[in-house]
Amino acid sequence: SVSPLAVDDDALAADQLRRLADLAQDFGVRVAYEALAWGRHVSTYDHAWNIVEAADHPALGTCLDSFHILARGGDPKGIEDIPGEKIFFLQLADAPLMAMDVLQWSRHYRCFPGQGGFDIAGFLGHVLRAGYRGPLSLEVFNDVFRQAEAGPTAVDARRSLLVLQEATGLAAPPAPVVPTGVAFAELVTPDVEPVTALLGALGFTRRARHRSKPVDLWQQGEA
Hints:
It is a single chain. With 223 residues, the protein is of the alpha/beta class. It is built from 8 helices and 6 strands. It has helices at 10-26, 45-55, 66-70, 102-108, 120-129, 143-147, 150-167, 192-201, and strands spanning 31-33, 60-65, 87-92, 136-138, 205-209, 216-219. Helix 1 crosses helix 2. The longest helix is centred in the last third of the chain and has 18 residues, at 150-167. The protein is elongated and about 95 Å long.
């Protein structure tokens, strides 16, 4: 909570989250607890995880947001200590490195992965090594995106995900193409006569000429 009335009591927070998870479970819903970078008492992912772990409820997990973690200069390596199945949701956002109020920074200057100064690929690597295999959300608050058309922004977002996919090794490179035969070989030479003489000596015969380009077709059997 960011309320000035919030109580600094981890045991109370764990108890309340456990009861909330009980209610959610009755409706087939799960609760993901997230630490905001400007939280009143809980502002780091490891603190939030300690509370979730203390609550010990199957319908309660944590939500990780790259901005909230990296904007505070936190070390994301500790994410690997969280069981992957207890990470219920993942939110990604990059941002330019700026010395300003973190709340305003978050609400107005987030951008897509790879467009800012955070190591989003490294962050995602820690999450994946923790065993997380769930959905990935781009949570980007940005004044420019709010005013822009949705189409180009969506294309920009997809491009950033493709780059991130490649950077983290999530996408295997395509298998090399194995040639199964040769359709033709094209020769380009400034002096045609020696080449045509050589082809003739090798048993090739000129079969056709391109209708609009100075290109001849020479064949010998299936070659």
